[in-house]
């Protein structure tokens, strides 16, 4: 494994462990998801550059578009929960009380 691949895989795993263990606020979970998507985007872009193929060049842009949609949906949920519950703490959210 090259150092570049190790760097991006460790960045993805760091975001995944942050998402797993630090789930107190919704904003921290969204930031961990964005870090994971950023590391996937850069790794996929480098992979497409290494293969130097035209067919793989659109996949990083597609991932970036899905990441932007995920971020906007997450921020909309963050604003909605902050307005209804008064906080973005995950302990105050209960799915049974919709």
From TrEMBL:
InterPro entries in the record: NADH_UbQ_OxRdtase_chain4L/K, NUOK/Mnh_C1-like
Reaction it catalyzes: a ubiquinone + NADH + 5 H(+)(in) = a ubiquinol + NAD(+) + 4 H(+)(out)
Main subcellular localisation: mitochondrion
GO cellular component, one term: transmembrane transporter complex
Membrane topology reported for the UniProt record: Multi-pass membrane protein
UniProt-listed GO biological process terms: ATP synthesis coupled electron transport
The enzyme's E.C. designation: 7.1.1.2
Keywords on record: Electron transport, Membrane, Mitochondrion, Mitochondrion inner membrane, NAD, Respiratory chain, Translocase, Transmembrane, Transmembrane helix, Transport, Ubiquinone
Record GO terms (molecular function): NADH dehydrogenase (ubiquinone) activity; oxidoreductase activity, acting on NAD(P)H
Top enzyme class: translocase
Record-annotated membrane-spanning stretches: 6-22, 29-49, 61-82
Signal recorded as keyword: no
Family: Belongs to the complex I subunit 4L family.
PANTHER family (UniProt xref): NADH-UBIQUINONE OXIDOREDUCTASE CHAIN 4L (PTHR11434:SF0), NADH-UBIQUINONE OXIDOREDUCTASE SUBUNIT ND4L (PTHR11434)
Protein name: NADH-ubiquinone oxidoreductase chain 4L
Native species: Pagellus bogaraveo (Blackspot seabream)
Gene label: ND4L
């Amino acid at each position: 494994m090259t150092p570049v691949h190790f760097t991006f895989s460790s960045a993805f795993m760091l975001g995944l462990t942050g998402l797993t263990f630090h789930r107190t606020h919704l904003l921290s979970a969204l930031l961990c998801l964005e870090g994971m998507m950023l590391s996937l985007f850069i790794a996929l872009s480098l992979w497409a550059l290494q293969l130097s193929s035209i067919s793989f060049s659109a996949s990083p842009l597609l991932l970036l578009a899905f990441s932007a949609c995920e971020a906007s949906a997450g921020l909309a949920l963050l604003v909605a929960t902050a307005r209804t519950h008064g906080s973005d703490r995950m302990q105050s959210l209960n799915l049974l009380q919709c």
